[in-house]
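TASK: fixed-backbone design
INPUT:
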């Protein structure tokens, strides 16, 4: 069954002939009358493209709605959201879009996120915090001890949240179905995850089909059947179609999260903040993202970024210095590049994004060292 959230988001994504005659199908589940009109689905991608805000490298800064005055502590509600999915589903991009600013590194490499990152937005008396978790797989699959610890950590984070967002790359799942996705969806059935070192009970879960803007025209009619197939394997409360990169469908997802029954235990970040990370932590995350985009194979995974200093200069600019630790001199030569060109490119890309984020000049110094 597809919930009303699916109806709300899909109404903006597609135009259906005789939509008003079949809209009840969205509320009651996909039935044969809706399948009869799948042939006339036409996605309004021209409008989407015209309104798109490309977030690659310079995410647009949405301003989360918030009251002009702070809420009394006894009236503050907190909704904790776990963002889950297999690697490269777009979890970090979605977390950034919901938070309104980059709080987690994004790249096309798997396992860019190695530990949970927190993004947040506040609306009225409700603060929503999202935990962007490392890519997960179903229990029982062959994992290295290190990866297993990450997976268990992600599931533990999820079990402590009020609601989960299970993110799937819709374009990839239609083009080349990933068996890991189905195994994970089936693991969610019943709200418990077997096969882990300790039993965990999961909260309500919403299915988020991401990257809909990348679905080829000839496959768009298959999006509703895909949602129904996945929904039939688990107990999803809602289904949303989004393009986290372009921001489409994000507002509807925000509204859904705001309506989740939160805890009356106070906010955990300031009202105007979108993360609990420090300025220095955010800078390291941006640098790490540029490293993942610049280098190949295992090199990005073997680097460690160590912040050294952050200084506010008298002219209003910021000076940051970091060490990038690598395992050998041969790797250091690759990272530095000919006459420093490679690391210089990383530093330049990071500096420009930080300047755009902070609206001030940034002086960034990266030292590549063998650990």
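OUTPUT:
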């Amino acid at each position: 069954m597809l919930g009303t959230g699916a109806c709300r988001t899909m109404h903006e994504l597609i135009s259906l002939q005789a939509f008003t005659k079949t809209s009840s199908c969205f509320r009651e589940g996909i039935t044969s009358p809706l399948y009869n009109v799948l042939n006339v689905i036409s996605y309004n991608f021209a409008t989407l493209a015209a309104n798109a805000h490309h977030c690659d490298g310079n995410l647009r800064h949405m301003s989360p709605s918030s009251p002009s005055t702070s809420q009394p502590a006894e009236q503050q509600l907190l909704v904790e959201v776990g963002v889950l999915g297999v690697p490269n589903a777009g979890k970090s991009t979605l977390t950034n879009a919901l938070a309104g600013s980059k709080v987690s590194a994004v790249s096309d490499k798997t396992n860019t996120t190695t530990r949970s990152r927190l993004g947040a937005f506040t609306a009225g008396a409700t603060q929503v915090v999202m935990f962007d978790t490392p890519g997960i797989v179903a229990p029982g699959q062959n994992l290295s001890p290190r990866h297993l610890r990450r997976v268990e950590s992600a599931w533990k984070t999820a079990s402590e949240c009020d609601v989960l967002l299970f993110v799937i790359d819709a374009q990839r799942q239609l083009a080349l179905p990933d068996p890991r996705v189905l195994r994970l969806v089936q693991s969610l059935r019943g709200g418990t995850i077997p096969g882990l070192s300790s039993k965990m009970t999961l909260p309500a879960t919403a299915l988020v089909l991401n990257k809909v803007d990348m679905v080829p025209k000839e496959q768009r009619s298959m999006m509703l059947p895909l949602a129904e197939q996945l929904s039939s394997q688990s107990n999803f409360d809602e289904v949303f179609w989004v393009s986290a990169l372009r921001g489409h469908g994000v507002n509807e997802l925000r509204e859904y999260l705001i309506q989740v029954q939160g805890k009356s235990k106070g906010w955990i970040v300031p009202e105007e903040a979108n993360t609990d990370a420090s300025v220095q932590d955010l800078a390291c995350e941006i640098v790490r993202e540029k490293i993942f985009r610049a280098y190949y194979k295992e090199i990005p995974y073997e680097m460690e970024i160590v912040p050294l200093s952050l200084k506010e200069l008298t002219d209003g600019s910021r000076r940051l210095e970091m060490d990038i630790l690598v395992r050998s001199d041969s790797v250091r030569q690759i990272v530095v590049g000919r006459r420093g060109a490679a690391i210089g490119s990383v530093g330049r890309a990071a500096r420009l994004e930080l300047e755009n984020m902070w609206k001030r000049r940034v002086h960034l110094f990266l030292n590549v060292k063998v650990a």
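COMMENT: The chain is about 35% helix and 20% strand.
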